[in-house]
Amino acid sequence: MGTRYEDQPAEHWAGAESLDPTPVWKQYVLVALLLVVSLVIIAAFSFIALAPQFATPPALVPGDRLVLSATEVPAVGARPTLVGADIAGAGRSFYLAQPAKGDVRALRTRWAPFANDMGCEIQIESATNLHGQLPPNMNGPLFQAPCGARNALALFDLRGAVISGSDRGLDQYLVSVSGDRVIVNLSRVIESQERTNAPVPTGIPQPQGTP
Fold it and tell me: Is the entire prediction scored with pTM above 0.85?
């Protein structure tokens, strides 16, 4: 029935070279090369992951992560610390704030009432200077932006949440605290979502020069 090897046509027979296996030493070399490449890849990823632990703050390490000393974090409810472009890079300045114990925020200094707008720079304002415009129990520093809804001053708390004058909070970077250092991931921007059912703010002070 043609099922045996010797029954097959001669042109279908495999040559003698097919019976010659790959030399063992070549197999060892291939395995060794694969092992070396794997170790190099593992070492590279380990270096990137551990870079923030070995860098001397302030330092920008692979992965666009900014390493700061934990001493840069202000006390709970205290005036935020500005980290400028000389450290974070152009267009990436932010305020470091601690609204509650262990809750560290990196709030971007530039904000817009609508995503992708030009926007404006936010500033720090004392709640005492806004007496009568805030809830009675609100005190300490706040953020304000002169480009809020209808050219009103937009106010935000230390978490970046809207107090008045806008439907959109402050954008911020992802932050982690590790021992004596704070790691701010400048490649991870947490964009605030615009609220669509917020009431139109009233009684908000107008910026100087606005008709």
Answer: no
